[in-house]
């Protein structure tokens, strides 16, 4: 084997190792094919949380799993920046809608549970809107509200600390109203901690926005979802 061929082979091995390592370390936010489980959880993390489902999302998944003994769960963390630039949240809306449609098509027997925390709750809500203001131009990658045919596959929607409209408009100008369609509102639970300034009108306690892990609402959301499955 010539030195050149030997070096190229070593380079190929190195690249393969790096790609494999990237796939492992990047976590569940990487797009992957749905696994056909009894329950498919799709959760959008909050602002500045690490890729995956985030702390609130993981606590919700763990609580839901404990309430569904014998059932299998596939968990997907919505792939989007979750940065302080709320305008990039549209990437999460695109990813969530694609994931819902892909799961419904590939795994029609799976019961889909949607969830989100903080900015992630807004991502989930905007994924489920059923109407847009006249003349509103959809961002590239979106074709409009999701097909009604996927709605029956969604068993429950649980949102923690959903930003109030003025918060969304402050951080993402020209955002349309979050008009969630009737196919989903009956399956939806929105949880807001008392005095949470992000979701509670008049709320002024910044610490309240980080209280969901300890205030019992994770369990309340998991109970709601488990009953709906």
Kindly describe this structure.
The chain has 229 residues and is an alpha/beta fold. The chain has a single domain (24-228), classed as 3-Layer(aba) Sandwich (Rossmann fold), CATH 3.40.50.1820. It is built from seven helices and five strands. A five-stranded parallel β-sheet has the order 2-1-3-4-5, with helices on both faces. Strand 1 (39-44), helix 2 (54-66) and strand 2 form a beta-alpha-beta unit. The longest helix is centred in the N-terminal third of the chain and has 24 residues, at 3-26.
What is the H/E order?
HEHEHEHEHHEH
Percent range for β-strand residues: 5-15%
Gross morphology:
globular
Low-pLDDT stretches are 1-30
Mean pLDDT, all residues: 83
- Supply the CATH class: Alpha Beta
Major sheet: order of its strands?
A: 2-1-3-4-5
Number of helices: 7
Number of domains: 1
Tell me which oligomeric state these chains represent: single chain
Largest sheet: 5 strands, parallel
Q: How would you summarize what this structure contains?
A:
The protein is of the alpha/beta class. Helix content is 38%, strand content 13%. Helix 2 (54-66) crosses helix 7 and helix 3 (90-106) packs across helix 4.
């Amino acid at each position: 084997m010539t030195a050149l061929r030997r070096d190229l082979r070593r380079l190929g091995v190195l690249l393969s190792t790096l790609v494999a390592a990237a796939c492992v370390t990047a976590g569940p936010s990487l797009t992957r094919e749905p696994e056909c489980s009894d329950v498919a959880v799709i959760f959008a993390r909050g602002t500045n949380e690490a890729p995956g489902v985030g702390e609130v999302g993981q606590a919700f998944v763990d609580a839901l799993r404990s309430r569904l003994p014998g059932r299998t769960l596939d968990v997907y963390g919505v792939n989007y920046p979750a940065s302080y630039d709320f305008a990039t949240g549209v990437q999460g809306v695109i990813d969530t809608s694609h994931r819902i449609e892909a799961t419904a098509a590939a795994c029609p027997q799976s019961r889909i549970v949607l969830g989100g925390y903080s900015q992630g709750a807004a991502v989930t809500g905007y994924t489920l809107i059923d109407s847009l203001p006249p003349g509103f131009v959809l961002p590239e990658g979106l074709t409009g509200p999701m097909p009604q045919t996927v709605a029956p596959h969604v068993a429950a929607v649980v949102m923690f600390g959903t930003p109030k409209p003025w918060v969304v408009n402050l951080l993402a100008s020209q955002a349309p109203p979050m008009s969630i369609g009737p196919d989903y509102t009956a399956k939806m639970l929105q949880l807001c901690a008392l005095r949470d300034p992000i979701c509670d009108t008049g709320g002024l306690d910044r610490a309240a926005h980080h209280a969901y892990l300890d205030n019992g609402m994770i369990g309340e959301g998991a109970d709601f979802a488990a009953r709906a499955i």
